[in-house]
Amino acid sequence: ERYMCTPYPDNVARDLAAQLPGAEVLALAEVVAGEALVVSRLNFLLLLLALAALAAATLGLVATTTATVVERAVEIGLLRSLGATSRQLAALLIGETALVSLFGGAVGWLLGSLAAALVRGRTFGEGSVLEPLLLPLALSVALAVAFLGTLAPLRMALRLDPSTVLRGQP
Asked: Burial level of 126, CB count in 10 A (0-12/13-18/19+)?
């Protein structure tokens, strides 16, 4: 009767604390709440790290693609002088970047899954090492980074003047 009208775990914890002087008795809900706060902060930190990694990957892709456009300026100018449209050049540059990014996304998914399995170990029981549901997500993120990282170099490539480039002038 005594436990019917009040929260049961708190009453049990209070009674145990009274019976065991000097012992700290907490209801499990309080312990779990404290651990949940730590886990939520870790999740936020990992989200920030993932966003920083995506930003770094995008900047790296911009630099690499810009270097490719500069190195291939003569080829791009020749294609333009032979009648290639802006849409065709965009398809060429985005297609190349997308293929490399899809390969990178697949390798990243594989290495990430293996690393997660290594870190996880047997903590949460036996599970699949590879999570196939995450592959489309990894490939989608890789394509999004590829698209965002190709926009500025693509604009630069489309602004190249074929006659200036083919004459060897900057």
From this structure: exposed
Q: pTM score, two decimals?
A: 0.68
Distance in angstroms (rounded) separating the CA atoms of residues 95 and 48: 30
- Token readout for 12 is 């049990």
Angstrom distance (rounded) from CA 44 to CA 131 = 22
Distance CA 90, CA 139 (A): 20
Torsion sign over Cα 96, 101, 106, 108: positive
> pLDDT tens digits, residue range 42-51?
999 999 999 9
CA separation for the pair 86, 162 (Å, rounded): 12
How far is residue 5's CA from residue 28's CA, in Å, rounded to a whole number? 20
pLDDT digits (tens, 9 = 90+) for 121-147: 766 666 667 888 889 999 999 999 999
Q: Quickly count: other Cβ atoms within 10 Å of residue 141's Cβ.
A: 17
CA atoms within 13 A on the CB side of 109: 19
Angle between the 134-158 and 86-120 helix axes, to the nearest 10 degrees? 150
- Residue-wise pLDDT for 53-73, tens only, equals 999 989 999 999 999 999 999
CB 110 within 8 A of CB 142: no
